[in-house]
Amino acid sequence: MFQLLTIALFQVFTFTNQPAKVAIGGTGWGNGDIVAIGGTGWGNGDIVAIGGTGWGNGDIAAIGGTGWGNGDIAAIGGTGWGNSDVVA
Asked: What is the pTM of this model?
């Protein structure tokens, strides 16, 4: 389920190439980020990313980084590759 959500968010935000809504400190490519503070690397479709999420595709709340971090719901302090973690 979360992987499908991640893929959908990645495709929507990548192909529409929307800028971040609120970005403090940069988001790299940052397509479709809602709030990104401190950068998200590529950061496609992040809802809230504080401290960076590496590639960070489809993260809902990532604080402190998630490595590649695809589809994480709540990741605090990093999850390495972090694919579809609900709480890490």
From this structure: 0.50
